[in-house]
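Sharing a chain and its predicted structure for anyone who wants a worked example. Both blocks are below, sequence first, tokens second.
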Amino acid sequence: MDLTKEIKNESVIIGIDNQFTIYEAASIKDEIIDCFENYNDLSIDFKRLEGFDITGIQILYSALISAKQSGKKFKLLNMPYIAINLMIDAGLDPVKIFDYSQI
């Protein structure tokens, strides 16, 4: 797993390359927490994502709740169909829950 970080003023975009599964969960979670502590606007870009599992959904949902509680912005970019379908299979409606964009 590789993470990239693009910072612009109070905004940061984390790019997740390769995998977002249980094996990478701790590292990604730590990075999200760090970004919420230091920036007002966090986006996660999935354009290079190859693998995704239910652990990724749990971390994203937790990040969404944290963002709402702290008044921060949280957005998902280039969400792959595998992730969207997994969210739907888990009983979530990603369109209603997450602010996401396809670039």
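Comments welcome. The beta strands are 2-8, 11-20, 41-52, 73-77, 99-101.
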